Each structure stands twice: as structure tokens, then as C-alpha cells.
Batch of 2 targets.
Target 1
Amino acid sequence: MPDIYCEGCGVKIQTEDETALGYAPPGALRNEPVVCRRCFRLKNYNEVQSVPITGDDFLKMLSRIAEVDALVVYLVDIFDFSGSWVPGLQRFVGENPVLLVGNKKDLLPKSTNANKLKSWIWRSAKELGLKPVDVLLMSAEKNHGIDEVKRSMEFYRDGRDVYIVGSTNVGKSTFINHLIQETVGGSGVITTSRFPGTTLDFIGVPLDDGCTLYDTPGVVNLRQMVHFVDVEDYRQVMPNREIKPKVFQLNENQTLFLAGMARVDYLGPGRRSLIVYASNALVIHRTKLENADDLFKRQYGHLLAPPGRRDQLPVLKRFDYRTGELNTDIVFSGLGWVTVKGRGARLSAFVPEGIGVTVRSSIIKG
């Protein structure tokens, strides 16, 4: 039969092997559009099936962009900037201009200073070796800021193809669906979900001037907390609405647990505020430092959940900090961050082995 590609994820359809990528029952080929079983179950039942494609395969796909003349629209997750960053992106896109777009601004508190946030993204990108032509903010989910992104895309692409790139779950497909419906006027909708790794190959959308807009597969970053939890815990870990900050007054030698996935020990000096920015559904527990190790052993998977199942205790890696900024964020990749008020605080942060932890000047005013 002629080659048919899944309307949802872009993978080539096959009808022989139910366990292989791109499988669809023969009867599904009569449908319009044709989608693979994985996309059908994801869209209709929110059921995630494993994908036999590695992060290296994704990066090899991205390297094809360096061979063409195009605009690259690079989406990062504002909520998880470091965890959604694609290492070495400049190498994969070659000399093509990069428009850097921070998505999910709707998750941040309304007190967030947009100009300060954009400046921080500029600086962070430069430190990571990328010099974008512009930095913009949007919410693909809420359809906020997309018009400005579209205008910038038209200006910077200058009659060329466009590639939308980014790590898993940054909102590429949701963004492109808006472009299809509002700009291109097509009826096709790319498969979207709140789970990582939906798009499996380049999906081309024709533009009016003969060029093409491409959705690309998401690069899997295993340093994100999402890869540490099960699918059923993911909804609780990832916020889907504006974060409500949780303020804690900590004395010396007290500990904050972010469910069973991260821990902050405040060592001093004095009493000060720590503010947690994470999913509103996430349980934050405070205890004395002297009780923290025992509490973790007894309550991991119970009071300290997610993770919601009681497996072997994870190996936690310790990071020690002394704050130099007036307000400092300790960022747990894919989980959120804790703002430490005031200079000179001594802290230790703990996360499962392999999960990323970074420190930055606070991006929230106040």
C-alpha cells in the first residue's frame, strides 16, 4: 500500500506488528484522518504507550535542520527552563536564526515581572551558548501572546520554512494547532497531551507562500523530574493552572519536603521565609532537620507522595548552597523551585540521583 503517515504524531503507519511503532488496525485505514493506535488511545483515553525511540534518535532528527535555510522557533518551558533546555541546540540548527519563546507563562503568579523574566531568559540563553534573534513569552494552552509570536515568525522567517523545536512537553503541538486553525485554516490537529514524547517525526504544515511549518519530535531530557514518576503521578507533579505560592517561616535546622521528590534543609542563620512555587496539588511537609531522615524512610510513598508507590528508597544527591542574592531560587528540574529570602542563607538541597538542580536570582518580585 502507499505510504501513510499518522495525522497525530507523524510516524509511518504499518498494520503488521501491533507492538511496533506506527501500528494501526487495517480497518483504521478507511478513516479520515488516519492515526496510529498510540495516538488514538492517547487522544480518546489519555492512555500513554511507551515509545521505542531514544533521545539520541530525536537529536539525529533535529540535526537535519542544519542542512536547510529556515527559521527555528525554539520553545522552552518557563516553569522548567533548565529542564526543558536542549543541550547543544546551536549545533543542531547550524547558522539558522533562532526565535526563543518561553511557553506556559500562565502557570506563573500574576506578580511575575514579564520584562525581568525575558531578561533572565536572554542571559541564561547566552550563558548556554545560544544567541536568539528575539525572546518572547506566551501561553499556548491559554492562547495568550500567540499573535505576537506569529508576527515575529513572519518577520524573521523572511519567506523561509519554519521549524518548531524543543524538549518534550513544552507545548509545541498545542502551539502549532493554533497556527493551523488560525493562520493556515486547516482542519488537521496534531496529537497533544500533558505527557512527554507525543510527536515522533517531523510533521509538515504547508504555508500559503509555498513554504512549510514543521513540528519536530520533542527531545527527551532525563534530568527532568517527570521521568522519575509514574504516569498516574504526573498530573499531580505538573501544574495545569496558575501556581499559588506557599510561604513557610523556617527556623534554623528545619526541613521542607516537596512530596517524596525533593528536600530542602535550612541550616540558618536565623529565621527566614522560604516560598515554594510548585503544583498546587503537591504536598509540602515541614519537619525538624533531626527528624528528616527517619521521616523520609517511614513516609516515602505515603505522607511523602508522589511517588505514589512504595519502591526502594531512591538515592538522594546533596547540593550545598549559601545565598548571595537578596532573593534566590533553588530550582528542581520539572518540579518547581523554592525562593529563599535574604542573603547569607545556608541550605542543602536533595533530589534523586540524576535530577537537575540549579540556582538563580529570583524571577518573582517581592
Note: The mean pLDDT is 87.
Target 2
Amino acid sequence: MLKKQEAIVLKTIDYGETNKIVTLFTRDQGKIAVLAKGAKKPNSQYRAVTQPFVVAQFLFYQGSGLPSLSQGETIYTFKEIQLDIVKTAYASYIVELVDKLTEEKKSYFLVYDWLVLAMHQLNNGQDPEMIARIFDLKMLGIAGAKPQLDCCASCGSQERDPVAFSVTYAGFLCNLCRIKDERAFPLTLSVAKLIRALYYLDFNKFGTITVKDATKQQLNHMLTFYYDEYVGIQLKSKRFLKQLMKMDQNLFKLDNDTLEQ
């Protein structure tokens, strides 16, 4: 049976000398793996459409085993991502997050749209770190670990403003409940509102978001702890991002030292 699906490439694995197994995330079927025969050959018709982050219309034959790719027609290639190591790193993080948190052949409402829209935002020059944090928040619902961001996670009060985020209580704490978790992350009201806004953000309405570096670091630190506690996945792309950030910090220090001489 031939099937046609719009999909984005999550990853590829070499299979034999000339073939690839391509993991796609489709609009209708969620995540599926297909065999692209001869995709490693320089003149293969599948070479372009099996690159990371490519969005295409894929035609594949669904038999009793692994589906076999029959045709692919490119829709988007996101060239700016491919040419920028930082954008590539964040795009890799986002697609790996989707890959780790979804099951094969299971439909996930809106995830395909989130993924493609995130690639567009990265490609168009939006802050990659903020796009990654938005994706972190949105994928928590898919992972079954949605935090309580609409009221106090301890007492349920919607009247008192949040003053902290608790990993233990899985959400915001009000000023009266803050003492229940000594390890909770303290928050200003503006940061709490930002977290809530990012969680509910419509990617179609995503515009330029300017956030202080200190706030971005706080969000990353907080969400890393939360994922470790409730999701428990290890991402190779996250380790690479840490290495990139460390390199940037070292280069910044080197530049400052040079200026002071």
C-alpha cells in the first residue's frame, strides 16, 4: 500500500553500505521510520530529502515490515539553520526532544505544527535559546509532566501571586506555601508571568521576544531540574549545546583579556 505524508526529518541512521533508515515526524501519523534505499549514494534521488530538518512530501510503500521510501518532494530546507552551527545545535535539540518523547505511529495533536513553526522561527533569526525553552515547556504536556502554572501547586490559590517554582510540588508556589520547599526556585512576578505566557504561546503568533540573559539561564536551569525529576531523558544535543556555550564564554573572556592588555 502506497502512503503519502507531509513530514519533517528527525534523524537518519546508516543501514548497510548505501541505505538509510529515516525517522520522520508526520502531520497525521506522528513518528514513523522508513527505509530509503540507496540514499547514501551521491546521485540518489533521496539524498536531499533525507537531510536533517527537511520538510517534504514523502511517498512510501507500507508492507508488512519497515516502510520503503518511494518518492520525496522537498517543501522547506531551512538553509539558514544548515549554515549556522548555533541554529543547527538548537534545531537538533528540538528534534531530539520530540524523538525521545513520542512513540511511533501515534498521533500527537499540534506537535507537528509546533516543530515546523519552530524551525521557521530559528531559520528567520529568532532567539534560538528562547525557542528551545518554549519547546521544553510545551513538550512537558506530551511527556505527561505538565507543571501547575495556573495556581499555587500546593494550596491551589489563584488569588496570591506565585513567588517560586517548585520541582517537588511540580509548579508555582504562593508566598504562604513557599516555606514548604526550601529548594524551590525564587521567581519575580514578571518571570512567573513569562513562564506561563511561554507555555500557552501560540507559535503562529510568535514574535520577537527579548529576554535578559540571566532570565534565560534561570529558565534553563529550572527546566533542566524539572526534566531530570519527571521525564528523565538524556539528550546528546543538550551536551553539545553546553559545550558550545562554554566555548562562547571562553571566547568572550579571551576577547576581554585582549582588550585589557
Note: The mean pLDDT is 91.
